Amino acid sequence: MTFYDLWNEAKKIGINQDSFFADFLSGTEQSLKPLYFGTNEELFCFCKLMLDIPVGGFINSIVDHGYILKPEDVIQFSDFEHAIFDVNRIIKLGNKDMTFTEIGKEIMNCKLEGACKKYGENHSKLASQLSLVRLERNGCFLVSNTNFGSYSVSLSKEDKIEIVKRIALRNHFIQKVILDAKNGNCDYQQLTHGILSASTATRRKSNVKYLVLLILSHTSDEYLIKNIVW
Q: What's the predicted TM-score (pTM) here?
């Protein structure tokens, strides 16, 4: 049985799920493997489980592991939906691995190579953080769908967003924002100090805020939003 089959069984019979939440939020190999290589049946189980467990269950399971934040932990994108919907769709329709430039051209419908490459890179890297694609370097970076990424193309928009919310909670910076908010006060600028330049932190602020609000809104933890100073 895969990680998510075992988790589903534990949920059914009322066994404590803390270890499953911990492994998922830490991105352990056993929790990631089904997303990268799982069968449709395994991915169906994963998606159903994610949709059955309220996002609050994941939020309440976040703990401070003393992780040292890195610049790449602070997400960046231009359009969140391009990252979670279009990258997978484009690769699946093309039926091949694609470069950042090729993906950017398809999304932007633009011929400026530099702009297309940067756009494709930012959105592919976010999709990678969400286990929707894998990045491999072979002269240049090539982007391919994970099995979950291909499977997710057939999900409804609403279901995919709900599942992505839970996966996004594996992001160390998002975890830190939520933990600080739980402790009464989170200051975004202070969190990014020493990680990013002031200008980069300001540029990425709207991205982080968008995702944090997406995760917390309409949940029992929505009150945490008031504890975050942007």
A: 0.95
8-state DSSP, 195: T
Q: CB within 8 A of 78, min separation 6: which ones? A: 119, 122, 123
Q: Which residues contact 110 (CB under 8 A, 6 or more apart)?
A: 104, 116
Position 116, amino acid: C
CATH 1.10.10 residue ranges for the chain: 80-151
Q: Which fold has domain 80-151?
A: Arc Repressor Mutant, subunit A (1.10.10)
pLDDT in tens, 101-137: 999 999 988 778 889 999 999 999 999 999 999 999 8
Burial degree of 144 (CB within 10 A; 0-12, 13-18, 19+): middle
Determine the pLDDT at residue 109.
82
Q: Quick one: how far is CA 98 from the chain centroid?
A: 20
